[in-house]
Amino acid sequence: MKLLKHLTLLLALASGTTQAALDLGDAAPDFTAPAALGGEVFEFSLQKELKKGPVVLYFFPASFSEGCSLEAHSFADAIDQFRALGATVVGVSRDEIEAQKRFSVAACRGKFAVAADPDQKVMKAYDAVLTLRPEYANRVTYLIAPNSTVAYQYTSLNPDKHVQKTLDALRDWAARKSPSR
Predict the structure, then answer these.
(1) Contact between residue 59 and residue 138 where contact means Cβ atoms under 8 Å apart
(2) Span 138-176, pLDDT tens digits
(3) Backbone angles phi, psi at 165, to 5 degrees
(4) Is 108 a catalytic residue?
(5) Architecture of domain 17-177
(6) Which of 144, 53, 135, 63 minimizes the C-alpha distance to 99?
(7) Helix (H) and strand (E) counts in the chain
(8) Catalytic residue among 28, 68, 113, 116
(9) Rounded to whole angstroms, how far apart are CA atoms 114 and 9?
């Protein structure tokens, strides 16, 4: 049965995706959600984090699936680069907080938070529900500027390019905001 579930998820992920509805300049929906960082649970608040700087909000289908674990490792490896640019990184999936506690340690390596969205309120607000398998999040990454607007978005079920493309977008955004320009 577990193998069938994984095969079904793989087939859904291999099928086409749609672009996220939120576009550049759109208002990013505010949210709070239970999250875990290094196995510790806390309440993640988008508004609170935006007061510190930009937020990289990425949605992923399922904790501990192969692609999602690879993507989390990539974000963990690049976290110092994101922080150097003043950004907070948070992942979101429909997994329960108990799964996110374990995922935040194993895949995220305790370097960034993952939020639980079992009722899919955040996923729906960001149009990050996988069309063909609506019980899962689509793989969508947003860069949200401190003024709560979408500065960048990237949608692809392939986890390989999310981190680099988002870092590039964050660097471009930071360069535009630099007082020397």
Answers:
(1) yes
(2) 999 999 999 999 999 999 999 999 999 999 999 999 999
(3) -65, -40
(4) no
(5) 3-Layer(aba) Sandwich (3.40)
(6) 63
(7) 6, 7
(8) 68
(9) 20
Percent of the chain topping pLDDT 90? 85
What are the backbone dihedrals phi and psi of residue 55, each rounded to the nearest 5 degrees, phi first? -125, 130
Give domain limits for the chain.
Answer: 17-177
Give the separation between CA 70 and CA 36, rounded to whole angstroms. 18
**Does 1 or 130 have the greater pLDDT score?**
130
The type of residue at 83 is R
In 3D space, the residue among 141, 161, 152 whose CA is nearest the CA of residue 74 turns out to be 161
Tokens 């998820």 map to which residue? 9
**Separation between Cα atoms, residue 43 and residue 59, nearest integer Å:** 17
Task: Please state, in angstroms and rounded to a whole number, the distance separating the CA atoms of residues 8 and 112.
Answer: 29
Residue 154 to residue 166: CA distance in whole angstroms: 8
